[in-house]
Amino acid sequence: MPASYAYLGPEGTFTEVALRTLPEAATRELIPYVSVQSALDAVRVGEAEAAFVPIENSVEGGITTTLDELVAGTPLMIYREVLLSITFALLVRPGTKLSDIKTVTAHPAAQPQVRNWLKTHLPDAVWESAASNADGARLVQEGRYDAAFAGEFAAARYGLEALETGIHDAENAQTRFVLVGRPARPAARTGADKTSIVLWQRDDHPGGLRDLLGEFATRGINLMLLQSRPTGAGIGNYCFCIDAEGHISDRRMAEALMGLKRICLQVRFLGSYPRADMQPGEVRPLFPGTSDEEFVGAADWVARCQDGRF
Amino acid sequence: MPASYAYLGPEGTFTEVALRTLPEAATRELIPYVSVQSALDAVRVGEAEAAFVPIENSVEGGITTTLDELVAGTPLMIYREVLLSITFALLVRPGTKLSDIKTVTAHPAAQPQVRNWLKTHLPDAVWESAASNADGARLVQEGRYDAAFAGEFAAARYGLEALETGIHDAENAQTRFVLVGRPARPAARTGADKTSIVLWQRDDHPGGLRDLLGEFATRGINLMLLQSRPTGAGIGNYCFCIDAEGHISDRRMAEALMGLKRICLQVRFLGSYPRADMQPGEVRPLFPGTSDEEFVGAADWVARCQDGRF
């Protein structure tokens, strides 16, 4: 397997910064790709060992291009996640003053996060979208625009300076990234894990989705993400991308997945992996009988009953 | 109230075509706005009677800019919906042949719907995004690009011809649009209605979302859309935009909404309005005791009990 990771490029974006926080990235060649699709395809055809792409954003929600790629096509699996706080710097050519700025640029995804700042500080500046934040910085270097919103780390690479840093409209603006590879045995349980799956309902009827979620709820499993995505079969036809607390080797999670496998048209397992926030899943006292010990104890009891040893 | 409708412009896009299918549009002045936000703000400040914007797409799912606008800010209400089938024409300057086309343009939302067609028929053409499909057609007229994907209806307006029509990657590619106004009494029940709401959970615990959906399921109400949207309070914090079959004046729906009001942190009512597909909601025999007659009969019985007349 080639020792390289594909990632959503170009170089000098938040994705590269997030990828470099993974210890294993230091021993791999990191290759930028022009799109999420091309990065994941590089993994599918064996050009790269894994791909690193954004999957969820606290301002925009689930990143649909990534979810749709994981939902369809040759199955892939998530092995790691990284959470990165996103704040922007306003990058300009050295010597530019705030009052000189007539045009600003950045990737369209940056716009909702800098909109209020712009309204207050540069109400008359014209916004032009760039292919990426790094590309916006390059266009400022070339003189096409006066200023770019990008990570502060991009300033040095493009010979720019940060006129302002720490720009963000929403407190706690974070993006979640995942490392995706070909299916293999999931990483071992850490005690603070997350399991990602995609569910397709057998048919559409009152209570259908409620019944699917019941497979988690009756086993005391908390959900962290539920994002509906169109199946392509017309308005109103959705599958569900779900992140749930726990690891597939946990009894509670294994049971929930078996229950879903029985009642769903299709279930795609997207992986069990350590939570970036390292918080162990919490089983609430609200649901008595759902502690890990009780799950193990109940399995022992059934096994003893089956042996006539109860 | 001014007799004008704001809509997501510019002129000559699918939004305008969809708006003109509404009989009431014939008696209003139709004014294009540059964004969903500005169209809805025109209603909020009383500049327009209502705004007409896309809200759901069978390829891309819920249109997040519209949902986020309805979720936040001064409350608005949905009064009508329109479903429009979306197929693209490839528009060129008269005389252009397929082999002449080096560059193509359209709104980014068109790309997933024409991607396969492009790969087959114009594998080497360079894609450049336009601000709207109509704007793409204008840029072809000006000679900036060789071809634009747009509605066939845009050809005449920009002096172009359709080299190919009926282009779509997904069968049944449809977009759903809504007419949004200031809150008032919902339109009367037609028997084929839809109710839209936004739910915020009190807290995040195992089974929390399942319990919310249970308010619909136990009353035999089918859901048509469930789209999670970030609350802005960080990764993992979502509210839920829900479309459910039925009208707020139906007993079943009124009961479900009361149940949600009791258990949710917040419920925003976005309106009850006729379904564009005119299909009456189906109550499945699977859920005995949930016919309209049974709801009315049960209410009568409780009233009689309260009077000691059972």
Descriptive overview:
Two copies of one chain form a homodimer. With 310 residues, chain A is an alpha/beta fold. Chain A has three domains: 1-85 and 173-184, D-Maltodextrin-Binding Protein, domain 2, CATH 3.40.190; 88-167, Periplasmic binding protein-like II (D-Maltodextrin-Binding Protein, domain 2), CATH 3.40.190; 185-310, ACT domain (Alpha-Beta Plaits, 2-Layer Sandwich). In chain A, 27% of the residues lie in helices and 30% in strands. Chain A has nine helices and 15 strands. Chain A has helices at 14-19, 36-44, 64-71, 111-121, 133-141, 154-157, 208-217, 251-263, 292-306, and strands spanning 4-8, 29-33, 50-57, 61-62, 77-85, 88-92, 103-106, 126-129, 147-150, 161-167, 174-181, 193-200, 223-230, 238-245, 266-274. In chain A, strands 1, 2, 3, 4, 5 and 11 form a six-stranded mixed sheet that branches. Chain A is elongated and about 85 Å long. The termini of chain A are far apart. The relative contact order of chain A is 0.15. Chains A, B: One of its GO terms (molecular function) is prephenate dehydratase activity. Chains A, B: Pathway: Amino-acid biosynthesis; L-phenylalanine biosynthesis; phenylpyruvate from prephenate: step 1/1. Chains A, B: Residues 4-182 form the Prephenate dehydratase domain. Chains A, B: Residues 197-274 form the ACT domain. Chains A, B: One of its GO terms (cellular component) is cytoplasm.
Roughly how much helix do the residues of chain A carry, as a percent range?
Answer: 25-40%
- The overall pLDDT average of chain A reads 90
Question: What's the end-to-end separation of chain A, in Å?
Answer: 50 Å
Largest interface: A-B, 51 and 51 residues
Structural class of chain A: alpha/beta
E-strand count of chain A: 15
Annotated CATH architecture of the largest domain in chain A: 2-Layer Sandwich
Quaternary form: homodimer
Biggest pleated sheet of chain A? 6 strands, mixed
Q: How many structural domains of chain A?
A: 3
- Global outline of chain A: elongated
